[in-house]
Amino acid sequence: MNTAPLRYARHHVLESFGEEGQARLGAARVLVVGVGGVGGAAVLYLASSGVGALVLNDFDTVDVTNLPRQPLYDEEDLGMRKAEAAARRLAARYPHLAVEALPLRLDPSAFARAVRAVDLVLDASDNFPTRFAVNAACVGAGRPLVVAAAQAYEVQITTVDPRSGAGCYRCLFAEESPEDAFGDGCRRTGVLAPLVAVAGGLAASEAVRLLAGQDAAWRGRLLHGDVRTGRFGTTRYRADPACPVCAAVETRG
Ligand SMILES: [Zn+2]
After folding, report:
1. How many A from CA of 127 to the centre of ligand 1?
2. Of 8, 68, 145, 181, most Cβ neighbours within 10 A?
């Protein structure tokens, strides 16, 4: 039975989305950096929502401590490259999806090429050096970037749209701050397992809406939430005229 016309029926009737938004999504190509907890949740919803092509970048391997918050993987995947295990699983489940694994640490020029080849980047990495490199590549290539992180009991999301002049990730965080829990992965601070799905789901919802032609919710704003206090809020930030990344760069298509 051909279920294709029915599959995205809830998006077709969704206000400001419709069949046109769904068609845009089907034509879109997304690079996801980091397919751990946050990225693993995001790629499941990007794929199930109907994104046409995914490129998964992660050089890490599946470890037993990952399994409680990374249900994309199971015991069979232990020791495998996450990018390859995730690509295999998504390809088996979503036949419409073109999925490619980049299980490598990319040098800056290879990374810039990977960014230029996609419509949007979702950064779910767990450290500042990677986030700064991804931000610089997206600003250089003029590609929108959604950054999501979960640490301990907290989530953070922001969107960088290099063509908007609203500021980039480096305008928000001027330098690496070793004291910031969002800077060293979750080995030291831990992370509440279900929280990664909150961050990944919010990032995927922002990415899917942007690809369908809607406006960014978190451009020039940082969403921060803490599930212990139940408080979620947003903080505005502006383009820094002295930003070493976006102040001097003329974005190109
Ligand atoms: Zn900047």
Report:
1. 18
2. 145
